[in-house]
Specification:
Layout lengths: L3 E7 L13 E6 L2 E7 L3 H7 L7 E5 L5 H4 L2 H10 L6 E5 L3 H12 L7 E5 L7 E4 L3 E7 L7 E7 L5 E2 L1 H6 L7 H5 L4 E2 L5 E2 L1 H4 E2 L6 E5 L9 H4 L4 E5 L7 H6 L5 H11 L3 E5 L9 H8 L5 E3 L5 E3 L1
Parallel strand pairs: 3-4, 4-5, 5-6, 14-15, 15-16, 16-17
Antiparallel strand pairs: 1-2, 1-18, 2-3, 7-8, 8-9, 9-14, 10-13, 11-12
Length: about 300
């Protein structure tokens, strides 16, 4: 099975603590690295997670609160010091580029690569990235400023050839790719050998949904339905539901209820308020509704 990993670099919220770094993640899909949000200290956590900088090609910023993007300028500077030459692509709200350009011109003058910004509309779901391995779609969220999550959907891989059957029918090499991608094989005598006899099915494609900084939005469940893993913010416990509503955040109970309604495989909660020295209260609250829940923590790696 091809690699599909989620690395947690930071899972705290706006106020700094000694326990957590601000929000940031790396998604590794078939050895392509995608960053989601870039809070302060993200590059240090990349080192601690033993992730190579060079394969990072695209950064997705959910919204322009500092705990989700203050690490960008430092990361870009470091990439230049490391001799990067490939273009770095940043997908974010349209306001980010005019904010970042003066900083790039001053602090990163003469960097060795281009930084290309790709603005998106956070109000409607839209495909913002697509290649042979994965499609990335926005998930509209409700926060104090424009904000969205991201859905990473793996592309289906070709079926697996049954070597004994390939040898039995003496199928030439140039036919193999077509067979793996669903076609039957016709022998020189005109006999049709069905695709199903020559292959075994590939593993089902996987999905990862990221929903941070949002109120509880049950109407979004169809957008993430059936995801193998859902990251959903759980800034507060239910006894602070009024504060969660006031600040446009979610409780652990709401995150678990959302996961249950969406029929996801596993829930990962994070973006913890600094008031919690022990987040086990959030985990217990979520597990009462959705037992397959994990607490995010720095340098945690989840394999889908």
């Amino acid at each position: 099975m091809e690699k599909f990993e989620v690395h947690i670099l930071g899972c705290g919220s706006a106020l700094p603590t000694t326990r957590h770094f601000p929000t940031s993640q790396i998604v590794n899909i078939r050895e392509k690295l995608f960053m989601i949000d870039c809070g302060e200290g993200a590059q240090l956590q990349i080192r601690r997670s033993r992730i190579g900088f060079s394969r990072l090609g695209h950064i997705f910023i959910s919204h322009l609160h500092g705990d989700h993007c203050f690490g960008l300028i430092g990361l870009i500077s470091t990439l230049s010091l490391l001799g990067r030459t490939a273009t770095l692509h940043i997908h974010a709200h349209r306001d980010l580029e005019p904010l970042m350009r003066p900083w790039l011109d001053f602090f990163c003058r003469g960097i060795s690569f281009d930084v290309e910004f790709h603005p998106f509309d956070s109000k409607q779901p839209a495909t913002i990235y697509d290649d042979r391995s994965v499609t990335v779609t926005t998930i509209p969220l409700n926060h104090r400023i424009p904000c969205c999550g991201f859905l990473f959907e793996e592309k289906r891989t070709p079926d697996h050839l049954i070597r004994e059957m390939i040898d039995f029918y003496r199928i030439p090499f140039h036919e193999l790719n077509r067979i793996k991608n669903g076609e039957d094989y016709t022998t020189p005598e005109g006999i049709i050998v069905p695709h199903s006899r020559l292959t075994t099915p590939a593993s089902p494609p996987r999905k990862y949904a990221y929903c941070s900084d949002t109120t509880y939005l049950p109407e979004n469940t169809d957008l993430v339905r059936g995801a193998d893993l859902l990251f959903h913010e759980a800034t507060f416990a239910e006894d602070n539901a009024a504060r969660a509503k006031e600040t446009c955040h979610s409780t652990a109970k709401q995150a678990a209820t959302f996961a249950q309604k969406a029929g996801v495989g596993q829930l990962l909660i994070g973006h913890f308020s600094a008031r919690y020295e022990d987040e086990s209260i959030l985990l217990r609250e979520a597990k009462e509704i959705f037992p397959n829940t994990l607490l995010a923590q720095e340098n945690l790696k989840i394999t889908l």
